[in-house]
Design brief:
three-stranded antiparallel β-sheet, 66% helix, 412 residues, mainly alpha
Length: 412
């Protein structure tokens, strides 16, 4: 009985040990597989989150303590390793900082250069817009010349509606360098049969007034082209009344004496004073016989008064110019034009520095005819200028008798 009991106890112990061994074997065999499965599931579920946390931890230099036990030697080794790693992280961070500082400094310098460039570009744009809205003197003068050229070449019918003095003076200056060479042509190629030159009658020459060009204070000496006699007095109707006959004669007498002295090259103070006094007396008498009550009674009375007043102001300015000028040729008849064509008149005026003066009432027709003649010359001579661009229509309109335009038939 005792032996059976011992045997059963031994069998129980054996079965217990066998169970333990079998369980251990099962755990050793199946445990890794199950653990790997659970690990894979966990990794697939939260791999992105853990990677993000690990990356941020490494980037921020976060220290994650180790798990598990350690000896004194292993702890010293790990501490030394952590120190070396930290030193490397520091050096790497310092290099990144130096690179970032260098990039920032470079960007600051580029920003500084960009700021200076932007500043001056803004100034240039500002000046360009200001110049566009308010151009300078030269730009305005060029524009004015272009407008005059267009008015004369394309819109001449508009010019003929008013006073053409400004336009014929512009044509005179433009033709200065074009017509002067004609005077040096051989005799058999002179201008009598020219298709661009125009003859001037004696009546037209007397109606064309020239001036020495003086404009200071509105003072300007004018004289007919054929006589070159200054201070001529074609009295207007308001000054031809009998009440002013004595004053008119006194002025004419004093004027003739002063002109005779100046023609001889003499300056007579008394004669000059007499002319100024006679002019003042005529103006005073004219104002006294035209009181305000009478000159505003009707438009005709006021118009006559205004015409006489303007004439006397112009006459006073011419008298002052004649007294103050140092040009003795004005009084000696040197500026008298003795030719009979438009080209010769232009040459005469350019050589003596003369200009056209505004026409007297009744002389507007002669000025319009002169304008058309000067325009014709300008268009023909300008057609040979490579810097000018005349339309074919303008050139064809000026072709004489089917001849070619331009300057091919100027002297035939």
């Amino acid at each position: 009985m005792k032996n059976i009991t011992v045997f059963l106890c031994s069998l129980d112990m054996f079965l217990v040990h066998l169970t333990i061994v079998v369980c251990a074997a099962v755990v050793l065999c199946v445990g890794p597989v199950i653990g790997q499965a659970f690990a894979d599931d966990a990794a697939s579920i939260d791999q992105t989150r853990r990677d993000r946390i690990a990356a941020s931890a490494i980037g921020m230099g976060v220290y994650v303590p180790r798990r598990g036990g350690a000896t004194a030697l292993s702890a010293a080794i790990h501490a030394q390793a952590d120190y070396v790693k930290s030193l490397g992280d520091y050096l790497e961070s310092a290099s990144f900082a130096r690179r970032n500082n260098a990039i920032a400094a470079e960007q600051e310098m580029r920003n500084a250069l960009q700021w200076v460039s932007t500043y001056f570009e803004r100034r240039e744009l500002n000046r360009a817009y200001r110049l566009k809205n308010n151009p300078g003197y030269l730009a305005n003068e060029e524009k004015r010349q272009e407008v005059l050229d267009r008015r004369i070449t394309k819109l001449f019918h508009e010019v003929l509606k008013g006073d053409v003095t400004r336009e014929i003076n512009w044509l005179l200056h433009e033709l200065a360098g074009m017509t002067l060479p004609y005077q040096y042509l051989p005799g058999d190629r002179a201008k009598p049969d020219s298709t661009i030159d125009t003859r001037l009658s004696k009546t037209d020459l007397h109606k064309i007034l020239l001036t020495d060009g003086g404009r200071r204070g509105g003072r300007m000496l004018t004289f007919p082209a054929d006589t070159a006699r200054v201070l001529e007095t074609p009295w207007p109707r308001s000054l031809r009344i009998p009440e002013l006959e004595n004053e008119r004669k006194q002025f004419e007498t004093a004027r003739d004496k002063m002109l005779a002295d100046r023609a001889k090259g003499k300056r007579n103070w008394e004669s000059e004073k007499s002319v100024m006094q006679a002019c003042d007396a005529l103006s005073s008498k004219f104002e006294s016989i035209n009181p305000r009550e009478e000159r505003i009674e009707s438009y005709e009375a006021f118009a006559q008064y205004r015409s006489g007043q303007r004439y006397l102001k112009t006459l006073a300015a011419e008298v002052m110019r004649a007294i103050t000028t140092q040009d003795e040729w004005v009084f000696q008849g040197v500026y008298r034009f003795e030719g009979d064509s438009v080209v010769e008149l232009v040459q005469h005026m350019c050589q003596n520095g003369l200009e056209f003066a505004p026409p007297q009432p009744g002389s507007e027709g002669a000025y319009r005819s002169l304008f058309e003649s000067l325009r014709k010359i300008y268009l023909h001579l300008g057609a040979d200028d490579p810097n000018r661009d005349l339309d074919d229509q303008d050139q064809d309109a000026l072709k004489p008798d089917g001849q070619a335009g331009g300057g091919e038939n100027l002297l035939q």
